[in-house]
Amino acid sequence: MKTLLNLIWLIFSGLWMALGYVLAGVICCVLIITVPWGLACFRIAAYALWPFGRTVVQRPGAGAASGAGNIVWLVFAGIWLTLGHITLGVGLCATIIGIPFGLAHFKMVPISLMPLGREIVSTSAPAAYPGYRW
């Protein structure tokens, strides 16, 4: 079932979102000082392509630098990306068929809001990851 949902997601929403995140990642990597945000954009792009069967957890070794970087991200990009995910999630949840896809958009809100210090892991064995927290 996860594969079917991921294929439908890829066609209707995932490919476009991933391309947007990749474009943002390339722009961030061209500007040398924003490389950490560019790498985060590439991680989110991979997650946006295939979200079902994966989840976001906090990385146990993330420190104050991740927190400061997340504040900068929040001001310049995080709020807008999060509003986009919430808007699309609400719109998709308005239809019965779109509910799983709307929930996938809501699942992406935490990582689009604050991507640094988070890790994308498989939901098959999330407790195996050190520092696992919902």
TrEMBL record:
* Inner membrane component domain mapped to chain residues: 4-54, 69-118
Instruction: Keywords in alphabetical order, please.
Output: Membrane, Transmembrane, Transmembrane helix
Which cellular components does GO assign to this protein?
A: plasma membrane
> Short name of one Pfam family for this protein?
YccF
**Superkingdom as given in the UniProt entry:** Bacteria
- Work out whether the entry's keyword set contains Transport: no
Q: Does the keyword Membrane apply?
A: yes
Query: So where does this one cross the membrane?
Result: 7-24, 30-50, 62-80, 86-106
Stored PANTHER family: INNER MEMBRANE PROTEIN YCCF
What is this protein identified as?
Uncharacterized membrane protein YccF, DUF307 family
Q: What is the lineage of its organism?
A: Bacteria, Bacillati, Actinomycetota, Actinomycetes, Kitasatosporales
